[in-house]
Amino acid sequence: MPWYVFALVDRPPASRPGRGLSGALAARRVPGGFAIAERRADVPPIEFDALRAHDAIVTRIAAASPAILPVRYGTLLELEEIEEALAEREEEMAEAFDAVRGRVQFTWRRQGAGGARGAGAARGAAGAAVSGTAYLRSVAAKSVPPAAFRAVRGKLRPLVVSERYQPATASVPASLYHLVDRDSVERYGLVARKLAASTPTFRVTGPFPPFAFTPELL
């Protein structure tokens, strides 16, 4: 039976990973790290409850892992296929783990600037888990944020390790992703909430696993 993969981590969790969508999670050694996965015969349906459950599992894994690379929703592979996909990518994975180790993601949404108001957003992009996990995992946000984000960027720059911007799409508003050290989460949250309160067109959510800062590996 194939494996349904939730995330790649740099080391196995200190305690048992718990349950997945329908069975026990396992930490399987793969090139460059460990895959946190469960045995499953088929891909779960793209439904709100399944997406929310998937997101909750990734969040739980992230809380127990120093470095996590979330895997896109619906990744069902044989172990041999996982190993083949990651073969000779250890260096890339090591760099990715180093980039996110001990860090979390916050997301800023600009409302009313194109795209739906938070519809289709995952935890990485909104407070509740919905169908944007795959969207966030595919972000290659190298565009320069527009001037509208200037105040947000200026106030929070000292607390931000890395930043990515995603222009608005038909389903998702313009989004600014910040990677923040876990030690800075409280301070970032305090400043971010004040900024959001004074700027109604912006909404901030987080902290979440680093969906937008994870390369496509599987």
Question: Which structural traits does this protein have?
Answer:
alpha+beta, 9 strands, 24% strand, 218 residues, globular, Alpha-Beta Plaits, single chain
Explain the overall architecture:
A hairpin with a 2-residue loop joins β2 (25-30) and β3 (33-39). The chain is globular and about 50 Å long. α5 (150-156) packs antiparallel against α6 (185-198). It is α+β, with helices and mostly antiparallel strands and 218 residues long. It has two domains: 3-98, no CATH class; 102-213, Alpha-Beta Plaits, CATH 3.30.70. Strands 1, 2, 3, 4 and 5 form a five-stranded antiparallel β-sheet that branches. A four-stranded antiparallel β-sheet has the order 7-8-6-9, with helices on one face. The chain has helices at 48-63, 79-86, 90-100, 133-137, 150-156, 185-198, and strands at 3-9, 25-30, 33-39, 68-70, 76-77, 103-110, 162-166, 174-181, 202-208. The model is unreliable at 114-141 (pLDDT under 50). The chain is built from six helices and nine strands.
